[in-house]
Write a structure and sequence with these properties.
alpha/beta, 258 residues, two-stranded parallel sheet, 12 helices, 6-stranded parallel β-sheet, Rossmann fold
Length: 258
């Protein structure tokens, strides 16, 4: 009953909106199905803060001393149920004999303690935890990553969305490996920024990581550059704000639409 009332309310709101903005292209059809006029729906993605950008980290920087040596696979952000941490642990277990590959977990969340304990139980010394860092410092850690990691659990709703870390990763110009379904995976592939496998598929994730590890550094660097170029084309704040202003102007100055 409650969900039915919410659905009716959403439909009534959508029908009265001149513009309905959706965070990913995957939400366009559901918005229309929920009552939005197809002509009113616009794709308006998230952007990353301007400090997410490629940076140089000096040889003597504290971050270099903090992170482990080897091939650094860096996850940055929330560690909760949505992030399918089990998938990361299972993939790390598959690759545990390849000790040069380090799974670097930066962040916090309600499942972080569980993940740390589970890694300890499994003897996964290749998975290391570094806690929460100031967001402004994250591009420095990302710059030291060989590959950046994004995961979500298999879920039809999550397949429609794009985790905000994807834009941050692309903005920092580092290659990405993603265990995502739907829109998140599409962006990584379309950008040419890395490899994407099905959400929850630990075996495929491990194989993708191994493949990236075996690549020449210049090949991974090219993925990072492609991701940054894609970000500049599709997700720069100024571009998106200009687009939004154009849509608003259409409503008051129909002859000026763009």
């Amino acid at each position: 009953m409650a969900l039915s009332l919410v659905a009716k309310m959403v439909r009534a709101i959508y029908r009265r909106c001149d513009r309905v903005l959706v965070q990913s292209e995957g939400f366009i059809a559901p918005a229309i199905a929920a009552g939005a006029d197809p002509a009113s729906v616009r794709y308006f993605p998230n952007w990353a803060e301007d400090f997410y950008a490629p940076v140089e980290v000096a040889e003597g920087a504290a971050e270099r001393a903090e992170l482990p040596d080897g091939f650094r696979l860096v996850f940055g952000g929330n560690m909760g149920a949505a992030q399918s941490l089990e998938t990361i642990l299972e993939a790390a277990e598959i690759l545990k004999d390849e000790q040069d590959i380090k799974w670097v977990m930066i962040g916090d969340g309600r499942r972080k303690a569980w993940m740390e304990e589970e890694a300890r139980k499994r003897g996964l010394s290749n998975v290391q935890f570094f806690g929460r860092k100031p967001v402004e410092q994250m591009p420095r850690y990302f710059a030291l990553a060989d590959v950046l990691l994004a995961t979500l659990r298999p879920d039809p709703v999550f397949a429609q969305t794009v985790p905000s870390k994807v834009q941050s990763y692309l903005a920092c110009g580092r290659p990405v490996v993603a265990a995502l379904d739907g829109e998140g995976a599409r962006l990584v592939r379309e950008a040419g920024a890395g490899l994407a496998v099905a959400a929850g598929d630990a075996t495929a994730l491990a194989e993708a990581v191994r493949h990236l590890y075996q690549m020449e550094p210049h090949q991974r660097a090219e993925m990072g550059r492609a991701g940054r170029a894609y970000y500049e084309t599709h997700f720069l704040r100024k571009r998106l704000v200009d687009r939004l202003e154009g849509w608003m102007r259409e409503l008051v100055e129909p002859g000026e639409s763009r």
